[in-house]
Q: What sequence folds into this?
């Protein structure tokens, strides 16, 4: 039986798994997810690695070996562990990469989130990680901050696959897409084969609804005009998808430009829109909401484990973003976003806050990760 996680492929979407761990790799579970459940990529971030390393003993033998070889720096130890995990995951997904003519089957590894506002530092670390992993289906995650934009252009210009992450605002998404296009132009000018370069733009979804809901609930609790209250209530759990649909519409518009058509004629691949943060934050919502509603051509949905299992068993698959239905949804999204503005809610303020918050949360997770590695290092070297 074809599960929803596989069925989305007929509409041009790939499901990636938003988790990685040594156990997932060595147990064969990732291979099963790829071969039986249609997983076509893997994403990671500092919080995911922190959970994997700190929560058990799967990494203890490797840490013990590294320490025995003289390793002491927690970041160096972590990078050694992460490099092996990502190499193993890349190898599992190599079949998808080859079968798709190098269009899919990627594994993402993030530069240090502390480099989010450091262009040159991001570029240098991305190059180093690219060399260390040494797999053609590695994708380097770069936060889409102002400093990240020129880094994305530079890395694409060198033929390094990039996952531009932490996107919340549609305007910022357009800047990321322009950086990708500029990078392709640089790569082509240097004689590079454009079909060898891939990228995704990771657009975060559920966090927007969670933040808007909080803002609306605070206003509703203060009372006020009944008509305004009803219109505000109508926005709850609706804005994130409208914002995502708007971003996808801008992506489709870009593919109609002469600038893109010139690159397309040279074999360039579209920078797919990747839906991230697609686990629902409220028990009042269907767990598959942000997967069901965002299926469309040239998209990826990176799905946390619990959401993946829910979608596999109860997901609704349709060509939600394309054709006549897609046009209707885009018109509804435009009206929804206009209502947000009319009611005095600043989506720009929300997305700016979420970007700053996301950078800080990943920095905090990275620091906790290094603390966990240091603790493991010390525990494994204490005299018995």
A:
């Amino acid at each position: 039986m074809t599960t929803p996680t596989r069925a989305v492929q007929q509409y041009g979407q790939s499901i990636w798994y938003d988790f990685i761990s040594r156990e997932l790799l060595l147990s064969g579970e990732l291979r099963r997810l790829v071969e039986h459940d249609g997983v076509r990529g893997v994403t990671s971030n500092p919080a995911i690695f922190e959970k994997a390393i700190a929560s058990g003993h799967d990494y203890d033998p490797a840490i013990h070996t590294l320490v025995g070889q003289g390793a002491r720096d927690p970041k160096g130890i972590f990078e050694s562990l992460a490099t092996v995990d990502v190499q193993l995951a890349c190898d599992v997904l190599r079949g998808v990469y080859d079968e798709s003519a190098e269009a899919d089957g990627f594994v993402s590894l993030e530069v240090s989130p502390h480099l989010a506002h450091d262009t040159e530092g991001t570029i240098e670390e991305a190059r180093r990680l690219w060399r260390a992993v040494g797999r053609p289906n590695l994708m380097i995650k770069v936060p889409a901050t102002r400093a990240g934009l020129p880094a994305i252009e530079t890395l694409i210009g060198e033929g390094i696959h990039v996952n531009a992450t932490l996107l919340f605002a549609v305007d910022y998404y357009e800047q990321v897409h322009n950086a990708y296009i500029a990078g392709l132009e640089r790569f082509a000018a240097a004689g590079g084969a454009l079909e060898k370069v891939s990228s995704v733009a990771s657009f975060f979804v559920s966090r927007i609804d969670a933040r808007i809901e909080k803002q609306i609930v605070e206003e509703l609790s203060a009372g006020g005009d009944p008509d305004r209250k009803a219109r505000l209530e109508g926005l709850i759990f609706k804005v994130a998808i409208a914002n995502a649909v708007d971003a996808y519409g801008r992506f489709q518009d870009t593919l109609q430009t002469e600038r893109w058509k010139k690159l397309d004629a040279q074999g360039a691949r579209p920078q797919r829109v990747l839906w991230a943060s697609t686990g629902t934050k409220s028990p009042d919502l269907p767990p598959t909401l942000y997967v069901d509603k965002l299926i469309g051509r040239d998209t990826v949905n990176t799905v946390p484990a619990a959401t993946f299992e829910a979608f596999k068993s109860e997901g609704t698959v349709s060509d939600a973003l394309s054709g006549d239905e897609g046009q209707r949804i885009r018109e509804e999204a435009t009206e929804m976003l206009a209502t947000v503005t009319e009611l005095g809610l600043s989506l720009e303020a929300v997305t700016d806050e979420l970007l700053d918050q996301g950078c800080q949360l990943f920095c905090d997770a990275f620091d906790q990760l290094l603390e966990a590695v240091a603790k493991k290092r010390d525990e494994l070297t204490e005299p018995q």
